[in-house]
Amino acid sequence: MTRAWRGAALAAIVVVLVVGLTPYLWMFATSFKTRLDTLSDVPIWTFQPTLEHYPEVFLDKEYLPLLWNSVAIALGTTLLSLFVGVPAAYVFARYQFRAKEDLFFFFLTTRMAPSISIVVPMYLLFNYFGLIDTKFAVVLAHTTFNLSLVVWMMRGFFADIPVEIDEAAQLDGHSRAGAFARVLLPLAGPGIAATAVLCFILSWNEFLYVFILASFESRTLTVGIPGLVTPHGTLWGQVAAVAVVATLPILIFAALVQKHLVRGLTFGAVKG
Amino acid sequence: MAIAFRRIRKVFDDGTVALDDFDLGFENGEFIVFLGPSGSGKSTACRILAGLETPSKGAVEVDGNDITSLAPRQRGMSMVFQHYALYPHKTVYENIAYPLRVRGENEGEIERAVREVADMLGIADLFRRRPKQLSGGEAQRVAVARALVWKPEICLMDEPLSNLDALLRLQTRAELKRIHRELQKTFVFVTHDQEEAMSLGTRIAVLDRGRLIQFDTPQAIYHRPATRFVAEFIGRPAMNTIDGTIEAGNFRAGELTVPMPDPMPGPAVLGIRPEQIELVDQPGPDVVTMTLDIKEVVEPDTLLTLKRGEVSVVVRTLRQVSGLQTGDDVHVRLPASALHTFASQDGRRLS
């Protein structure tokens, strides 16, 4: 690459970073601003920071249980999606059966359906079983869209492991299931971690299902934020404080597994 | 322990017939080679024996017991794979130890067995490495060590040498022969390389398009190939095969006439190995004169492609023939004892 191209590429990266990071930094700053500073016409970058918003929203307004809800639901969704999806992905990667690709495509299409079109029937269903406003209902709902993701990503990771490894494990004394559990799962570990993080993030961020199915006791931070838009105006400082806490786990997890994340998501693109 | 394939047929989901009416038996302690071109079903036969494939028909027996439905781990066999199939997340030591761990051996026993097999293969200094840090030859040894560490009665090897470079292949081949002699276990070795098969096998099963063509010692396969296919597949350069007819005590093909000792009149294929054709100085009663077409010097041998009309034969000789030029007359004798005849129709051996 020539020097000029390098310069141009670098400039492009800077632009993307600025566009992408400025709102986040702005939000981060806002969470430490007084109400007066947040309402200034021109964003101010130098101000006397305050810590008042965090205790106010999490303790006084009792948003702390929402944080717990978010964690519990995202964790539950991740575990359930992996528990069902990883073995399914293994089967897709290793076994031949009739209409396999059709079934696989069907799994993917479940992700293409707009949530809004399923949420009402889902509401009726959960209502019938008395599950409205439970974390369990939200976990089930979130698993519906995460399952296809797990199957999609993990199939690629399993396909990358040579079949000979399965066979070697069987000749070394494992049953087929044993080979999967004892040899293949550890080998697919990085892939599982990346998939788990993505599941967690998607569930953590999800708004609509939680909003419809669990808008009271079991609501999450994401759904909690609009509650800070009051008739007397939006409490920007508190909104930002909640948002900062809400994005923290995503930042940490994404940083941990970004390499595998990219690899997992581009699998389909490469192999068609 | 005797192993037997009983009329195995294997049809894959896409309709490919990998094996058809495959019937074969051998004894404990042999070094059996499955030899054939790609698509001959040799790997499938090996995988059926291992339990990695289920035959569509037929049975696999060990000592008369049907093991067709047993899982691989219940068969007391181990396997070396073409691409080694080492566990990438484990060290060399743990790779070798793994079959013992799965079988619940105690730590002391594992350590002893791993050391013993590693010493035999000369890989004890690699214990702490990971498969990624091994050369092809080293990885191959580790794979063999893992297959032998728990002393299985039968060790299967599916083209284990095909990923090594030529020199290493020769070394590893010699080593496998030594190991087989030391361990006295049954080895089943799959290859498409006839030289590998000839050097390793106590007996060779030659397969073609899913069928067993011949099962015999390397010597018998070389000297009395059962079909034209075997004749052409074994030995390099390949046996000369000439389509012609037998009539009045002679084999005729174009301008070539060769006297036949036990003539059965009709169309036939004459076969003679390049190394068994003798160059002679003078024309004579049993001598054929041909024209030199191509001369290839492959020290210490020389390969001569000779022509007479439409008929073309290759001669391999150790004699110095530097004086010969393309177009020269060359006198050759085709010794009666070196002649093979095959049926024109199905290639089956006639003589």
Cα shape of chain B: elongated
Number of discrete domains of chain A:
1
CATH architecture of the largest domain in chain B: 3-Layer(aba) Sandwich
SSE pattern of chain A, N- to C-terminal: HHHHHHHHHHHHEEH
Overall, the morphology of chain A is: globular
Greatest chain-chain interface? A-B, 20 and 25 residues
Given the helix and strand composition of chain A, which structural class is it? mainly alpha
Provide the low-confidence segments of chain B as ranges.
none
Assembly classification = heterodimer
The CATH class label of the largest domain in chain B is: Alpha Beta
Could you state the CATH homologous superfamily of the largest domain in chain B?
Answer: P-loop containing nucleotide triphosphate hydrolases
List the total number of helices of chain A.
13
Biggest pleated-sheet summary of chain B: 6 strands, mixed
Mean pLDDT level of chain A: 89
Q: What's the CATH class of chain A, please? A: Mainly Alpha
Strand order of the largest sheet of chain A: 1-2
Q: What do you see in this structure?
A:
The complex is a heterodimer of chains A (272) and B (351). Chain A has 272 residues and is mainly alpha-helical. Chain A has a single domain (53-271), classed as MetI-like (MetI-like fold, Orthogonal Bundle), CATH 1.10.3720.10. Helices cover 76% and strands 1% of the residues of chain A. Chain A is built from 13 helices and two strands; from the N terminus they run H-H-H-H-H-H-H-H-H-H-H-H-E-E-H. A two-stranded antiparallel sheet of chain A has the order 1-2. In chain A, strand 1 and strand 2 form a beta hairpin. In chain A, helix 3 (53-60) crosses helix 13 (236-271), helix 7 runs antiparallel to helix 10 and helix 8 (163-171) packs across helix 9. The radius of gyration of chain A is 23 Å and the shape is globular. Chain A starts with a helix and ends with a helix. By secondary structure, chain B is α+β, with helices and mostly antiparallel strands. Chain B folds into two domains: 3-233, 3-Layer(aba) Sandwich (Rossmann fold), CATH 3.40.50.300; 240-343, Nucleic acid-binding proteins (OB fold (Dihydrolipoamide Acetyltransferase, E2P), Beta Barrel), CATH 2.40.50. In chain B, the strands form four sheets. Chain B has a six-stranded mixed β-sheet, with helices on both faces. A five-stranded antiparallel β-sheet of chain B has the order 13-12-11-14-20. Chain B has a five-stranded antiparallel β-sheet with strand order 15-19-16-17-18, with no helix packed on it. In chain B, helix 2 (92-102) runs parallel beside helix 4 (136-148) and helix 3 packs across helix 4. Chain B is elongated and about 75 Å long. The model of chain B has no long low-confidence stretch (mean pLDDT 92). The chains are: A mainly alpha (272), B alpha+beta (351).
